[in-house]
Each structure stands twice: as structure tokens, then as C-alpha cells.
User: What shape does this take?
Amino acid sequence: MRGQSSTAATDAVAALDPISPDRERRQRAARRRNVLSALLFLSPWIVGFAVFTAWPLIYSAYLSLTDYDVINDPAFVGFENYAHLFEDPKIALALTNTLLFTAVQVPLYVVVSLVLALLINQAGRGSGFFRTMFFLPKMTPPVAVGILFLLLFNGQNGLINTVLGWFGLAGPSWTTDPAWVKPGLVLMSLWTVGASVIILLAALQNVPMELYESARLDGAGFWRQSFSVTLPMISPAIFFVVVVNTIAGLQTFDEAYTAFFGAGNTTYSNDAALFYVIYLFQQAFQFLHMGYASAMAWVLFVVIMAVTAVQLIVSRRLVYYEGEAPR
Amino acid sequence: MADLISEDGTTAQLDSPEVVEALEWAVSIYDAQGGFSAVKSYRDAADFFGAGNQFATSVLGAMPMEQWYVNVLNDVSPDAPMAFDTVRGRDGETLAFAAGSAWAIPSGADNPGAACRWARVMTSTDAWEAAAQARISAREEEGKPFTGILTGNADADELIQGMVTSGGEPWDTAVAKMYEANDATFALPANPADAEFKSAMQDAVNSVLNGQATPQEALASAQQTAQKALDDAWAKLDGGD
Assistant: This one.
């Protein structure tokens, strides 16, 4: 009944105050101006997205179906490039290297980030200083990190082996022994944990103290509080760090390329560091197989999408989202 | 002596016994100094382009290297105890591998005649002589010797060798050895899979240096990769793709 009364009242008001055609035109013109203004403000991003993201994506999809060497026009070859991926032994090697690296690097990266974030969270007034210190290495250019890797992990007089030597341990040849190249790169990747530390620290500082007080009243100790309060409350942040670093791991390039394939190693390389994007880069810019490299890029895109989708599905069971973030 | 690739550029010969032997010899240089891992570690840690380079600091005994490095060493460590020689074959004759860049004119170029004339002028003896003269002036200003340029043009090389200025020993010997090597060079014949061929060859060498394969195994695998790359590239070229 209340609904019917309301409708009748609205109709009556509309009948008393009809919108004149002129007013309607003015409103439409105003709406158009608003839309145009919005588009104008958005146009730098729209142009940037179209030119630097959308068009390259579309063109790369087209190139993946061609034989293109940069000099001659692309020649359509259908799905030949994709078929060739299955015959190329280096694809399997590069994919295995990349997946292994990511599978080891991401969990370690998250654990180290979390431990550092927990420590900084306990640091009180000094936390700002440590936050800055841990973030600073993130500002290091990746090429410099690659060079740093060669120096720190140098088998003869690198810092890592020197420290191992203090404990009577003979360090391995991190930069040449294929069995130690990937572990070395994983350890080196921890150099840039700063960004993840900041994200996890922010999440830790958002956990309401009331939850800890309630847990303590219930008799929960440190570990119980950590597993039943802290981890669930920061699980969205952990999930974000996992997803972002997994994608970065699958696309890893700069440090490994500099250390094992870059200008300092024009003829030396190490198969153990041949990651997928490095091989893609070689195919595109060393051999000028742009079509093949584009096909590789799309396969990587699919792999990343698949891995991310699995992570999203798993996250439904493991990640706890609060409806309203407590202040 | 064997060629890495047949003269017509169609057949890889990376698994020939002579190539295997050459690789074994190259690896033995590193083995004699503690193995490749140790040598590379010292080389990575050394200030390769600076005064603390691996020879000035006496951490390396010998290293096969391209001729441009003579200039670096002369610049940064002129007093380091150095000796230079060419690589020699079993018969004692000098042996050297030559490589370099080249200009190519795409088949669909708008003005191939002009591009060709430009390339000819840029590689002419006169152009190289002018370049050498400019280099001499620049080096004189720095008080350093002119150690020559390798041009890919035999006439220009001969002319420029006569323009070299003395830097005393051992640098004069180094330059003389560079020109001696230049007279005994071999090069890979032009082929449409040059980058892939070199990559296969280098991968083989690296897998031996990294201890992943014997020279024979590595070069047998490289032979297959290189031959496939050559076959594919020649088929594409002959097919007019």
C-alpha cells in the first residue's frame, strides 16, 4: 500500500511540474558537456593505453601468426610459430627454469617479507627508519643488482662465500655451477623485498588491537594469536604479495640477463639462468624472430593467467576478507 | 685445420674432430689456471676496464682475447708486466678468427643505389685513412700511442699499419701481433642464420665450460641445432619469403 501511495504522489508532482522541452535539451547538453569534459581529462590515459598497451597487444597477437624479421614484411604462417614452440627444446628448458625459480622464490620472498614486517612492527618509534632502510634497495636499478650479484656471489672472493668461510664452509661457484645459479638468483632477489615489507607492515598495523585483547582474554598465546588473528587479518595483503611476485617471477629478466647474458657476458651464458623472457628477448632481438617471440609472449600470458586463476580459486579458501575494515 | 661451416655457408661442421680438439685446447687454458669457474670468478671480480684489471693485479696468467683489449690495458695499466702473442695452430702457424659488422640493403629499399654508394664510401680506403688520422690526433692529445684499426678492408689495413705510432714495449709487440693475426684470419662465410649459428656454437662452448657436457657431446648437439637453423634459413631465403 505504501508503495502505491508513493507512486501516485510522484505522478502528481510530475503532473504539476512538467519538464519543458527546452529544459530537457539544456540537461542533455549539460550531460554531453560533462561526458566530453570527462573524456578530455581521461584522454592522456586513453591515448597512452591505446598506443602503448592495446595496440601493441593486438599487433603482437597478429605478429604471432606471422614470420617477421623486422626488415621484410610479415608473412602469414598461421599457427606455425605456436606449433614450433613444442619442438624447441629451449622452450622446455626456459619454462622449467622459470617455474622452478618462481616456485622457490615466491614463498621465500613472502616469508622473508613477513618476518621483516613483523620485526619492524615491533620496532616502535624506530620503525620509520627501518622501513626506509628496507625499501631503499628497491630503488636500485635491476642492472646494478645483476652486477651486484656477480660481486656478492663471486666464487673466489665474494662476500657470501667469505662469510661462509668464517664458519668453515666452502661456498659453491654460484655464478658458474649450473646447480647453484638459480639458488643464487633466488637469494639475490631478496635484495628487493622492501616493497612487500611495506605492504605487509601496513596490513599488520591495520589489525585491530581489540582482536588481540579478546584472544588474550581467551588465553591465546603468541603463536595462537599469530595463526588465529594476525594471519587471517593480513591474508589479503599476503595474497596480493603472492600474486604480484608470482607474475614478476614468471617474467623475471633484468638481473639474470645482466649477470649471465648481458654486456659483460657477450659470449658467456649459463643455461641454468635461461629464463623464459630471456629466451623470448633473444628470439626477438638477437635472431629477429619477431613472430616466434610474439607467440612465446602469448603463451607466457596464458601461463600467467592460468597460474593467477588457480591462485584466485585457492585464495577463496585461504584468504579472509573483512566486510568493513576496522579503524 | 677445419672450417666451422662449409664454404658455401650451408653445412655446419661443428662436430668435426678438429673443432672438438680446438675446444679441448681452449678449455685446457682455463683448466691450467684452476678451471673456468675460478677464472671467471677472478675475472668478474677484477676491474676489467680499470687499473685493477686481472693482469695488473696478477690474478690471471693467460687469456685469449680480442685485439681491442690491448688499447684498454695500454690505457689503464701501461706498466703492467704483459706479453702478447697470437694463437697458433699445431703447425705453429698463427690462427685468428675475424668477425665484424656489415651493412645490408633490404630488397625493398627505396633507393638501393644511394645506399650502396654510401656503404662503399664509408668503407673506402680514404674514409678509413681519415678515421685513422682523426684517431691519431685524439690519441696524441692524450699523449698515447695510436695502436691501429682493423677495418675489413685489406688496403686500408696495410695503409693504417704504416701510421701506427710507437708506445714502447710490450705495446709495439702487441700491435705487431695484432696485424700478424689479421693476416692469418678465417671468418664464417656469409649465411642467413649467422646469429643462430653463433649462438649454437657459444652454447656448446659454455656448456663445456660450465661442466655440463664434454666437448664432443656439446658440439654434437650444437651441430644439430646449427644445421637446423641453417636449413630453415636457407629454405626461407631460397623460397623468396
